[in-house]
Design a protein that fits this description.
GO terms for molecular function: DNA-binding transcription factor activity; transcription cis-regulatory region binding. InterPro entries: HTH_LacI (IPR000843), Lambda_DNA-bd_dom_sf (IPR010982), Peripla_BP/Lac1_sug-bd_dom (IPR001761), Peripla_BP_I (IPR028082). Keywords: DNA-binding, Transcription, Transcription regulation. Pfam families: LacI, Peripla_BP_1. This protein is of the alpha/beta class. The protein folds into three domains: 43 residues, lambda repressor-like DNA-binding domains (434 Repressor (Amino-terminal Domain)), CATH 1.10.260; 127 residues, Response regulator (Rossmann fold); 154 residues, Response regulator (Rossmann fold, 3-Layer(aba) Sandwich), CATH 3.40.50. Helix content is 43%, strand content 14%. Strands 2-1-3-4-5-11 form a six-stranded parallel beta sheet, with helices on both faces. A four-stranded parallel beta sheet has the order 7-6-8-9, with helices on both faces. Helix 5 packs parallel to helix 12. The longest helix has 17 residues.
């Protein structure tokens, strides 16, 4: 097997110094664009691959990016990871996953045991309400970008979907469909995106002059089982407090709601409307199909990684707070008449 191409090989082929090749590959300011183009062309021709182990000894970079996130098994986070991977691999970075399983204790342990010398930067979707454990990492000048689940009191870049307007749109859609007693099965209390979706829900009810009751808001986890349990709790309310629609914080909980309703022979749509948030593919496969607000998961991953690389390559990159819009998708679970047309779905998304 032939030896890998080195910087010395590139320098010899181009008849320029090794230091010039090195600076050209690092895109430094003191090398002309013409020389950079020649070096890149020769590197491609000779199939040069950088030796990151050697480079890390020189510039202190490992070309490893850490990702802390609650799950890898659900649709949303697996899609986010795909977006991150596309950018990271195109820039010769490896990714290392740290999965918390939605446990604050595990997240704390992960951050305490992170090696400052093993990662260039960190992408985080937190399950904690406080960010004290990240402040210590920030004090070591480890660049961090939050995505999806963020901590508001940390001065870091973040990329999220528009939780407030998505929730407002979902609740308003239920109102326009004729539902007047709308409950919300929320995420864990205190998480910023839980509170933003709750705020969108309550503001939509106020806008349409509809009643709100504390009993209609239930905080719990994000699983299908939690959605089923929350819905059973709602169905035990006194007759005058029984809701006729449910806005779920995510699609998994919306699916749990439909399971609970079916077990009680309650007709979904006609008797009880249900809408979720995420656009998990499963929501379009069930019967009835479940209305939802689609999140731009791939773009959240892609943009988060691009932003982290900017912070890595330029220390003075300003902090950014990027919010991406969602899209209302109308399906059968919010149709009181039990049918809908593609035009209705198209109009609702505008």
């Amino acid at each position: 097997m032939s030896n890998p191409t080195t910087i010395k090989d590139l320098a010899r082929a181009l008849n320029i110094s090794v230091s010039t090749v090195s600076r050209a590959l690092r895109d430094t300011y003191d090398v002309s664009q013409e020389t950079k183009d020649r070096v890149q062309a020769m590197a491609a021709e000779l199939r040069y691959k950088p030796n990151f182990n050697a480079m890390s000894l020189v510039n202190g970079k490992t070309h490893n990016i850490g990702i802390i996130l609650p799950f890898i098994t659900n649709y949303y986070f697996s899609t986010v990871i795909t977006g991150i991977q596309e950018v990271a691999y195109n820039h010769d970075y490896n990714i290392i996953l740290y999965v918390t399983n939605d446990s604050p204790e595990r997240e704390l342990n992960i951050t305490r045991n992170l090696s400052a010398t093993g990662l260039d930067g960190l992408l985080v979707s937190t399950c904690c309400n406080s960010g004290e454990h990240f402040k210590e990492l920030m004090s070591r000048e480890i660049p961090i970008v939050f995505f999806d689940r963020v901590i508001d009191d940390l001065i870091v870049s973040r990329v999220t979907q528009d939780d407030y307007n998505g929730a407002f749109q979902a609740t308003s859609h239920l109102v326009k469909q004729g539902y007047t007693k709308i409950a919300h099965i929320a995420g864990p209390k205190g998480l910023p995106f839980t509170e933003k979706r709750l705020k969108g829900y309550t503001d939509a009810l106020k806008r349409h002059c509809l009643p709100m009751h504390e009993e209609w808001i239930i905080y719990s986890g994000f699983s299908q089982e939690c959605g089923e349990q929350d819905t059973n709790t709602l169905l035990k309310l006194q007759p005058h407090l029984l809701p006729n629609a449910i806005f779920a914080v995510n699609d998994r909980k919306a699916i749990g709601a439909t399971v609970a309703l079916k077990r009680r022979n309650i007709q979904i749509g006609k008797e009880m409307g249900v809408i979720g948030f995420t656009n998990d593919p499963v929501s379009s496969l069930l019967s009835p199909t479940i209305s939802t607000v689609a999140e731009p998961a791939f773009d959240i991953g892609r943009i988060s990684c691009e932003l982290l690389l900017k912070h890595l390559n330029k220390k003075q990159t300003p902090i950014q707070d990027i919010i991406l819009p969602g899209k209302l998708i109308v399906r059968q679970s919010t149709q009181k008449e039990g049918s809908y047309t593609s035009k209705e779905a198209e109009d609702a998304s505008k």
